[in-house]
Amino acid sequence: MEYFYQTDLGDPEDVKEVIKLVKELRGKYPIFGICLGHQMISLAYGAKTYKLKFGHRGGNHPVLNIETDKIEITSQNHSYAVDEKSLAKTDLKVTHTNILDHTIEGVECKKDKVFSVQYHPESAPGPQDSGYLFDKFINLLKK
Known about the structure:
The chain has 143 residues and is an alpha+beta fold. Helix content is 21%, strand content 35%. The protein has helices at residues 16-25, 36-44, 132-142; strands spanning 31-34, 49-65, 70-82, 93-98, 104-109, 114-117. Strand 5 (104-109) and strand 6 (114-117) form a beta hairpin. It starts with 15 loop residues before the first helix and ends with a helix.
């Protein structure tokens, strides 16, 4: 039996149609990205992504919310991360970081009403640590 291994399988940079769509919609409508959505938003603003050696898997990843200085327990399932250095040339601000490996876990562009997180707040491993993100998005929609 032969095994096939492709290092770029699932590369978010390959989803060019969604990246283009985010570029077209940003600033027109509020956007909240989760997991791959986080990567799509970052790429749409000109950031880069890279493949993690092992990826982030499971439901016990501590993430620091930089704005509140609180730690959220998160569920994650991804192989790529946003390159922090590449964010310097974008309108995105880092909002969350992974405490274990310091990868970027959240970004925001307030003027465009766009924000995202790399983890899965809907899975509620905290169990309510990240529920505020949905309230934030709903409030942006109401405005």
